[in-house]
Amino acid sequence: MSEPRAVDAAILVDDVTCRFGKRAALDHLSLTVPRGTIVGLVGPNGAGKTTLIELTCGLFPPASGRILVFGRDAARQPRDVRARIGVVPQETALYEDLSAWRNLRFAAALYGVRDADRRIAVLLDLVGLSERAHEPVRAFSGGMQRRLALARALLHDPALLLLDEPTVGVDVETRHQLWAHIRGLRAEGRTVLLATNYLDEAEALCDRVAILRAGRLLAEDTPAALIGRAGRCLDFVCTPSERSRVAALLRARVDVLRLEETPAGVTAYLATGAAAEEVARAVIAATPVESFRARSPDLAEVFRALETAA
């Protein structure tokens, strides 16, 4: 896929550096978020994901560089930018003594939402909270509060959603419900910047994924292209007594990029499918294994490989 042009960008991050004291939270970061897509920010805690979202909201300026949101400078035109974005922060920041309806009614007043009651009813239905609309938020589960925070972010009909770990701490069912809502945002033509620690979430939802480490961009591409960079995996299932022998055979191969010993055996990472086939034949000929399989790596394995190489 060719690089998106700036004219097509919902967000253009242009050589941004942000420091807290001597620490660089973002270090000459450049990134483009095309309109109408879901772009994932993945990386360990401290990688700079939340800092990038805060800068995009115009909460404070970067030390250098700029962030444009639909062509508007987030640091210089924060009111214009905030009118076009909806944010779901890590902490939902809801008023727990108020009902879901009153939380949204208060937010609607701040945004100057017209026909607020109709809009609130539509959004509560969208996130499946209509029947709990008049209950205090303190009685809601974590997943329900996340869904309500998403509804609040959508009140003013923003073109861009910034979601900072929106599924953290929720159960599997709620997580998949939130995934469906996020996919629905893209189907409506909105743009989503999604910060997540869950690589399977990024792989399932995102059109493009930016992998950050210590404020720098390690890689950015479609999930399929990132996975393709990592070549092929060979999973060898073997007994504990054979594991060290299989690992030694694999370490001796120049075409094995890296390997990991697992509870079930050994996993080898190779550049190409042809190399994987050759290595599999050589190992099986030299030592007994219970089974093996060739597969593509997942995004978590790609991330580990990039971190190791960095």
Question: Keywords, please?
Answer:
310 residues; alpha/beta; Rossmann fold; six-stranded mixed beta sheet; four-stranded antiparallel beta sheet; 14 strands; 28% strand
Strand count: 14
The succession of helices and strands, N to C, reads EEEHEEHEHHHEHEHEEHEHEEHEH
> Judging from the principal axes of the Cα atoms, what is the shape?
elongated
Largest sheet: 6 strands, mixed
| Name given to the CATH homologous superfamily of the largest domain | P-loop containing nucleotide triphosphate hydrolases
Q: Note poorly predicted spans.
A: none
CATH architecture of the largest domain: 3-Layer(aba) Sandwich
CATH class of the largest domain: Alpha Beta
Mean pLDDT: 91
Structural class: alpha/beta
Strand content: 25-35%
Separation, N- and C-terminal Cα atoms = 24 Å
CATH topology of the largest domain: Rossmann fold
Radius of gyration computed on alpha carbons: 23 Å
Count of spatially separate domains: 2
Summary?
The protein has helices at 49-56, 78-82, 100-111, 116-126, 142-153, 172-187, 199-205, 223-229, 240-251, 273-286, 299-309, and strands at 9-20, 23-34, 38-42, 64-69, 72-73, 85-88, 160-164, 191-196, 208-213, 216-221, 232-237, 256-261, 265-270, 291-295. It has 310 residues and is of the alpha/beta class. The chain is elongated.
Written account of the structure:
This protein has 310 residues and is α/β, with parallel strands linked by helices. The protein folds into two domains: 6-227, P-loop containing nucleotide triphosphate hydrolases (Rossmann fold, 3-Layer(aba) Sandwich); 230-309, Lrp/AsnC effector binding domain/regulation of amino acid metabolism (RAM) domain (Alpha-Beta Plaits), CATH 3.30.70. It has eleven helices and 14 strands. It has helices at 49-56, 78-82, 100-111, 116-126, 142-153, 172-187, 199-205, 223-229, 240-251, 273-286, 299-309; strands at residues 9-20, 23-34, 38-42, 64-69, 72-73, 85-88, 160-164, 191-196, 208-213, 216-221, 232-237, 256-261, 265-270, 291-295. Strands 6-7-8-3-9-10 form a six-stranded mixed beta sheet, sandwiched between helices. A four-stranded antiparallel beta sheet has the order 2-1-4-5. Strand 1 (9-20) and strand 2 (23-34) form a beta hairpin. The two termini are 24 Å apart. 37% of the residues are buried. The model has no long low-confidence stretch (mean pLDDT 91).
